[in-house]
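Re-run with default settings, no changes from the original entry. Doing this only to confirm the output is reproducible before filing.
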Amino acid sequence: MSFIAFQRFFATASATTFLAGAALTGAAGPAAASTGGGCNGPASMQACITVIEGDVDEDVVFEARADLGTATAPSCRLRLVSFDETTGWRWESSFAPCNRPGAQRKEFVLPNPTEGHVYRAELQILPNGKNYEFAQFVSSPTLTY
């Protein structure tokens, strides 16, 4: 074996050993690289989606925030709806009154999200209770996990 061939062999073997060791120890990087996400809407009504470090792996957090004041109709209701745009899955929170003093906050945590899926949060404000007449919808930016 020539000296140049030996150098190439040694470099290849070293790189292969390093990459195999990184894969075994999990040092190769995070489970998935998410893109997008964040918040959308004015300060008084926002829908947000983020990725956080969970107990074992990463979690996707869907959040809806509203501060509509006490001037809204007593029948006004709001809720958070969480979507997986890839599969059509959705989760809906219970309704909360809009006219409570102070900010309202709803949150849903999805543990172990699926790589390659597109997620979105939505704040629904229903002025007439559960009736969709005059409803307002605020959607978060999409998050691709």
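Residues 3-25 form the longest helix (23 residues). The longest strand covers residues 45-53.
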